[in-house]
Amino acid sequence: MSDFETDQENAADLPPIHELTKPQRRVLGTLVEKAFTVAESYPMTLKALTAGCNQKSNRDPVTPYTEDSVLDALDELRQMGLVAVVLTESGRTERYRHYTRKRFPFSEPQLAIITELLLRGRQQLGELRARASRMVPIESLDDLRREIEGLIEGNFAQSDGPLDRRGVEVDHAFYLPEEAKSQMSRSSGAESRDAARHSEEDNGVSTPASRSHQMASSGDWGQAVQELRTRNLALESDMEELRCQLQAVRDDLDQLKQSLGA
Fold first, then answer.
1. Which CATH number covers residue 252?
2. Residue 124 region, left (φ>0) first, then alpha (ψ -120 to 50), else beta?
3. Domain range for 22
4. What is the pLDDT of residue 180?
5. d(CA 126, CA 140)
6. Prior bond to 162 cis, omega within 30?
7. Contact 222, 212 (CB under 8 A)
8. pLDDT band at 218, cuts 50/70/90?
9. Contact assessment for residue 29 and residue 37, using Cβ atoms and an 8 Å cutoff
10. How many folded domains does the chain comprise?
């Protein structure tokens, strides 16, 4: 394939990006994810990208985006310097690639972390590390915390408490203003419940949450559940990669038929 990129605008001349709409976040996250995990089918066709946006695994919420709505988001992302269109040698099939590295100062682990947050929203550290490690190895929770701290300092991510606190959740910071208010309200509610739980525990009151924590701490079943979740995530990722590879083969066959006039 010979790439003829149509978007040549200098990213340094574009304004900084602080907000992304829901479709923009889903489309950009899908492009970055597939570039990491299914490199042979990247850059992506509109059809494959739409399927990736709407897939049922590793997405929250699951969406019913049409090709037209994905194309609208792509056009908006192109204007922001985040996406470019690439043409095949025949010029008949447009494919799309992301320029996230040119627009943000992310390390590779940070790019994987932000991608997972764009695709699923707020997450606890353990599940975020398992999911982001599908794209870039993150050896430990301490490594994850260091990368997240850099994202928070750059106002690209946010958390509902100190990163060393048990159960803390992390999210991206690209919400629109009206979404940000909702997220802030949710975080405040979670912090209030957490503070109340700790207060009751300090006073010797046994709460359902504290009893659950005590049970998890007293045995190995909590670790076993986490290992099973991690394996399940890996299986879901493998299945999705196979689906994308199949879609790429179908796209190549369609292109071959067009070139042969079939």
1. 1.10.10.10
2. beta
3. 11-103+235-260
4. 76
5. 9
6. no
7. no
8. very low
9. no
10. 1
Contact 123, 113 (CB under 8 A): no
In angstroms, the CA 255 to CA 262 distance is: 10
Long-range CB contacts (within 8 A, 24+) of 144-150: 144/109, 144/113, 147/107, 147/109, 147/110, 147/113, 148/113, 150/107, 150/110
Other beta carbons less than 10 A from residue 206's beta carbon? 10
* Full 3-state SS string of 79-143: HCCCEEEEECCCCCCEEEEECHHHHCCCCHHHHHHHHHHHHHCCEEHHHHHHHHCCCCCCCCHHH
Asked whether the beta carbons of 96 and 76 are under 8 A apart, the reply is: no
Nearest Cα to 83, choosing from 149, 17, 162, 130?
17
> pLDDT for 109-122, tens place per residue?
999 999 999 999 99
Give the strand order in the sheet containing 83-87: 44-45, 94-98, 83-87
**Does 69 map to a domain?**
yes
- 8 A C-beta contact, residue 48 and residue 38: no
Give the CA-trace dihedral at 19, 21, 26, 28, to 10 degrees: -50
Q: Whole-prediction pTM value?
A: 0.72
Residue with tokens 């990129």: 5
Q: Look at the alpha carbons of 243, 247, 253, 257 in this order and tell me if their dihedral is positive or negative.
A: positive
